[in-house]
Design goal:
Elements lengths: L13 E4 L5 E8 L2 E8 L5 H4 L1 H4 L8 E7 L1 E6 L4 E4 L4 E4 L3 E6 L4 E5 L12
């Protein structure tokens, strides 16, 4: 029989900062892979604050998650655009840029795209 699992983002197993102190990703690890809580501060933009870390032209992580607070705009490489805010569930395929809208931090729980997110390329 399977056992219950309890994890808490306030005591993550790993924390990854993004450039210039513009946010961080906290990870809790499950057998199926990590789940992340991303917090991005006003002024954060993927192409400015994560691209230099991962060295790809656009974000190549696939995200499946839920917005807790704040707002973000996502623009796919093909030009498709969407905004996400509190209560929104989203599936965002690889190949996008994103940035925080407004003056509130953006907080997102991601069940899929955090294994290598903001992890420096070796």
């Amino acid at each position: 029989m399977a056992s219950m699992i309890r994890k808490n983002f306030d005591t993550p197993e790993e924390t990854r900062p993004v450039a210039e102190g513009m946010g961080q990703v906290e990870l809790v690890n499950l057998d199926s892979g990590p789940v992340g809580r991303a917090t991005f501060l006003p002024g954060w933009k993927w192409s400015d604050h994560v691209k230099p870390i991962v060295k790809t032209d656009s974000c190549m992580a696939a995200h499946v998650g839920y917005t807790i607070s704040g707002r973000i705009k996502v623009v796919m490489d093909d030009g498709e655009e969407a905004e996400f805010g509190p209560g929104d569930f989203g599936i965002i395929p690889p190949g996008h840029d994103a940035w925080v809208i407004g003056d509130e931090p953006y907080v997102f729980i991601d069940w899929q795209g955090m294994a290598d997110y903001a992890k420096p390329k070796e």
